[in-house]
Write a structure and sequence with these properties.
By secondary structure, this protein is α+β, with helices and mostly antiparallel strands. It has three domains: about 220 residues, no CATH class; about 140 residues, no CATH class; about 160 residues, 3-Layer(aba) Sandwich (Beta-lactamase). The chain is about 25% helix and about 25% strand.
Length: about 575
């Protein structure tokens, strides 16, 4: 297959962002042809992801998509290959792993952009998966017989957890509702314990018609695209900063390329990007690749949630858990919301900091889908063994407990319909930062409580990460100079508050405070004084590293490796960070 790297001409409301690189192919080399999409019965072998991109002579779409797309997911004859199954899921008698959830969604097209009306994880009754839908593309190929070709980036997100499995869909359509079969392929994931390839060819139906909310959906999608931080390939770092070595970011000496999903480096307001490689070639829509948070949410939802709440209503951090979580008994006396966020409640089994999180019993917390199950576990499963604030025990349920208390305090003040994630985090921070619609949803309990998770459950795009890193790092927690967060709680994570260093975590140089890690990197850089990184870390190999020289580095991987010193040293060489 002949491929070349190209830049698509910027059409009106383009197929791709103006100047966004895409891998293209010649029309005669395409395997997902008109005939295959119209008459094929199966997709037996994986195709290169170039199949989901415009050919070199593609044209603007002559048809317009607005209406409802349905797939016959109940009649699937899919090709499935298990690659990694650490938890032996394949042996569970729970059907559906090899099948997509029900698909019945509205889309609207504007120019070359195809916008799903619903983005972010979409709850359903499927035993395994939730769809994450993202804006796609539409264009014409000369060989498609008057049909237009559409591509939809999507992901499957694990029903109870955070694992992400990214894929692409493509189909042909006309204005009158005539539509081909839909080909889909999943072959790239950010998941340590479960990895697979899944592909298929499904019957589809298209019901054209006016879509309620179409104008708002298109405006929101275009506004978000226009608001992205300026973006350049990581290789360009050497041109923009002579002497810099781009290979130190996403270093193959630290992270195996086969485990890497995406990485980036932010300096002077520019987002230098890398990664997005898959076994089937480069993922062509990296800006629409869904990324999991895992415990990065402890910082972004738990930590920032408390900082926003404390600024709005001082005294929240010191408020007692017992006052706002009545399910906890008298042995929680003296435990504050900040203690829970700091993971120092005094309730634990093992003195080993990570043993409780790794115990088999915690499956009851993670698999429980209702609030009653989760809060009962958080309150009652572990005995009180020390005074609050004395012992650090890594427990996701402690962060859930903190989030429950914050939410209940918010409801007490603002009314029973209030929701701290929606009202505080999204409205007061995510939207002003112009984060994606995907980031504006979080995993919740599947009951009438709909308690937002605090320790995991966010889905992010790489531009979201870059904006958040800039806000927390170079902008020092301010937006356009305006204070949004409680300054004392924020300064504590930056190690600026004497007497509040947080708790020792893993090593003497690693501290944990208010949902964030901080790491003294002075010994690695030859600094005379403590030099603190602020780190948001997630299960499986996710790290967002904020450096005191106003740069930031992140990577999402699934090899269970947490290493970033190559990037830190290179950033230090570019702009010294000794304090």
């Amino acid at each position: 297959m002949r491929r070349r790297r190209a830049f698509l001409v910027c059409w009106s409301l383009t197929i791709l962002s103006c100047g966004e690189p895409v891998v293209t192919q010649s029309p005669d080399s395409r395997r997902l042809t008109y005939a295959q999409l119209m008459q094929g019965n199966a997709l037996d072998e994986a195709v290169q992801l170039v199949e989901f991109t415009p050919s070199a002579d593609a044209r603007p779409a002559s048809n317009r998509f607005e209406g409802r797309l349905r797939l016959a997911t109940g009649e699937q004859s899919n090709s499935f290959e298990m690659l990694v199954d650490e938890l032996n899921f394949a042996e569970l008698e729970r059907p559906g792993m090899q099948e997509l959830p029900p698909f019945d969604f509205e889309f609207v097209q504007e120019g070359g952009l195809l916008v799903p009306l619903v983005q972010g994880p979409i709850r359903n009754e499927h035993p395994w998966w939730e769809f994450v839908l993202l804006p796609g593309r539409v264009w014409d190929e000369a060989a498609d017989g008057g049909f237009s070709r559409a591509v939809i980036p999507f992901a499957l997100k694990e029903r109870r957890e955070d694992c992400i499995h990214n894929g692409l869909m493509t189909f042909l359509f006309r204005d009158d509702g005539d539509v081909s079969r839909l080909a889909f392929q999943i072959g790239h994931q950010t998941c340590r314990y479960l990895q697979f390839e899944l592909r298929g060819l499904l019957a589809a139906s298209y019901e054209p018609g006016d879509v309620q909310g179409a104008t708002r959906a298109v405006t929101t999608a275009l506004t978000h695209r226009e608001s992205r931080l300026p973006q350049r390939p990581i290789e360009q770092l050497a041109d923009d900063y002579p002497g810099a070595d781009p290979a130190e970011f996403g270093s193959t000496e630290e992270i195996s390329p086969s485990d890497m999903t995406a990485f980036g480096f932010v300096i002077d307001g520019v987002h230098y990007v890398g990664g997005c490689n898959t076994p089937q070639g480069p993922y062509p829509y990296c800006d629409e690749m869904a990324l999991p948070s895992y415990s990065v949410a402890k910082s972004l939802v738990g930590g920032l949630g408390l900082m926003l709440m404390e600024r709005a209503y001082p005294g929240t951090a010191a408020a007692q858990i017992l006052e706002y979580v009545p399910q906890c008994g008298d042995d929680w006396d003296g435990v504050t919301i900040e203690h829970a966020l700091d993971l120092t409640t005094g309730h634990y089994d093992s003195p080993d900091a990570h043993a409780d999180e790794d115990a088999a019993i915690v499956s009851r917390f993670f698999t429980g889908e209702d609030h009653a199950t989760k809060i009962d576990f958080a309150c009652n499963e572990f005995p009180r063994k020390s005074e609050p604030g004395e012992h650090w025990a890594y427990q996701t349920w402690a962060t859930y407990l903190a989030g429950t208390a914050i939410n209940n305090r918010w409801k007490t003040i603002e009314g029973p319909a209030a929701d701290f994630f929606r009202d505080l985090i999204v409205e007061r921070l995510w939207k002003p930062l112009q984060l994606s619609l995907v980031a504006q949803a979080t995993r919740r309990t599947s009951d009438s409580v709909a308690q937002p998770f605090t320790g995991f459950g966010l889905t992010l795009l790489r531009d979201d990460i870059a904006k958040l890193a800039t806000f927390l790092g170079a902008s020092d927690g301010r937006l356009n100079g305006q204070e949004l967060l409680d300054r004392n709680l924020f300064d504590a994570i930056k190690q600026r508050i004497p007497g509040d260093p947080g708790m020792r975590a893993e090593t003497d140089r690693m501290h944990y405070n208010n949902g964030f890690r901080s790491f003294d990197v002075s010994g690695h850089l030859g600094c005379d004084k403590a030099t603190w990184l602020v780190i948001m870390s997630g299960f499986g190999g996710i790290n967002v590293v904020l450096m005191p020289n106003d740069t930031a580095y992140y990577y999402f991987s699934d090899g269970d490796v947490h290493r970033y010193l190559h990037a830190v040293r290179e950033s230090h060489a570019m702009r010294p960070m000794c304090q």
